[in-house]
Design a protein that fits this description.
The protein has 254 residues and is an alpha/beta fold. The protein has a single domain (2-252), classed as Rossmann fold (3-Layer(aba) Sandwich), CATH 3.40.50. It is 38% helix and 20% strand. It has nine helices and eight strands. The chain has helices at residues 54-65, 86-103, 116-127, 144-148, 150-160, 172-181, 184-187, 209-218, 239-252, and strands at 2-9, 12-19, 32-37, 68-72, 108-114, 131-137, 196-201, 224-228. An eight-stranded mixed beta sheet has the order 1-2-4-3-5-6-7-8, sandwiched between helices. 47% of the residues are buried.
Length: 254
């Protein structure tokens, strides 16, 4: 059973999708929840399609693993309100956790994200000890590349459509400072002994594989690091990555 979901974050309405397992699904169907997060759009006007295949992934996880899965459009993407900022997206991720705990009727929440979504899941879990574990795919270790030239990022955000209001951000310096202040590298070490899965492609053309190794080192190696040969950045569409996620979720219930 699946249903549309509306998440409230900072007074904004975020469009979401909740996938629920059947009553016959494996291992205590419906007792455990997963927040599933997309990344930053790549193509011009890509905000429309950001996360558009994630409901299918959510339904597969619900069917195969027996979890309740909430996926949603971060502010400025899809049918969600608002404009992109790193801090705003992190706030949205935290709002999704709260929504899943209440509306999903689950006992505990894990997180999974791809690219920037993976980085923000690591940050949210580092700040919230109630999150039971995180899987991050192709996740940047920090946003230093964006921080070098935030004006360029702002232009890119307008090109892909995640920022549409002419007057946003009202305070550019504060918007840019978030790129330096929010650091997965500083927060991942707060997650263990809760489980962390890091998956990265050898041929990732956007986020270097060294980012995954840096994240693992920042957690003193207390993570499960998987490097996929002949894999690029978009691991959402790599069957091996999806299989790793499903296996990891299965092990959470042992």
């Amino acid at each position: 059973m699946s249903e549309a979901a509306t998440i409230t974050s900072d007074g904004l309405r975020l469009a979401g999708f909740m996938a629920r397992p059947s009553a016959s699904a494996a291992k205590g169907a419906g007792r455990y929840g997963l927040v599933l997060c997309h990344g930053f759009p790549a193509e011009p006007k890509g905000f429309r399609l950001a996360g558009h295949t994630y409901p299918q992934l959510a339904e597969r996880i619900a069917a195969d693993a027996g979890w309740v899965v909430l996926t949603f459009n971060l502010r400025g993407t899809g049918d969600s309100q608002g404009d992109f900022s790193v801090a705003g997206w992190l706030t949205d991720v935290k709002a999704a956790i709260a929504h899943l705990l209440v509306a999903g009727g689950v006992q505990a929440v894990w997180m999974c994200g791809f690219s920037l979504g993976g980085s923000l899941c690591l940050c949210a879990a580092g700040e919230d000890p109630e999150v039971r574990g995180v899987a991050a795919f192709s996740a940047p270790a920090d946003f230093s590349e964006w921080a070098v030239d935030p004006r360029r990022l702002l232009d890119r955000a307008r090109t892909v459509g995640v920022i549409q209001r002419a007057g946003f951000p009202a305070d550019f310096e504060a918007w840019a400072r978030e790129l330096r202040d929010i650091r997965p590298l500083s927060l991942i070490g707060k997650i263990p002994p809760r489980p962390v899965l890091l998956v990265h492609g050898v041929d990732d053309e956007i986020v270097p594989m060294l980012d995954a190794r840096a994240l693992a080192e920042a957690a003193d190696g207390d993570v499960e690091l998987r490097i996929l040969a002949a894999a690029g950045h978009r691991l959402r569409h790599d069957p091996r990555a999806v299989a790793l996620l499903l296996g990891w979720l299965e092990r959470q219930l042992l």
